[in-house]
Give the backbone structure.
Amino acid sequence: MELILLKGKKDSGKTTTAKMVYEDLKKEAEEEPIYIELDDDLEDNEKGDDFKAIIKIQNKIVHIISRGDARNYFRDHIFPQYDKNTNVEILILCIRTEEQDARINGPMEDFVINWFNNIIEKKTYFQMNFVKNADDCKGIIEAKKETAQEIVKYIIDEISKQNEN
């Protein structure tokens, strides 16, 4: 399994970018996504816009999970789904990169990588750039689209390589 981490600070656009990735990958899918579950029932999810998606592309399974700021959620809902026998080829996770995470048992990235370490074959990172008080909202959306397109291109290329082998 390949783990793709979409990293960024709070409100840097990780979930928005993940949704753009989902929309683009959906166009490549063999069938409608297996399911999408909005996680708005979680008490600490203020906006209610996080999601999970499972997409099948060229016989490969891709999971996207945008909720990346709650260790308990990872421990209770994400980690139990994945082991060496998982049929997921690519897992995309959004995670926060904030100092507050570093004070609670180390950075979120380390927490995730340590757990997945014995089942992942490859790690890839995409960093979200945070633009505070930007005057140009259109420019911010375009930057997120570029990142999303870069991720989608990377995934399609990786799936093509896997299918060649």
The chain has one domain: 2-164.
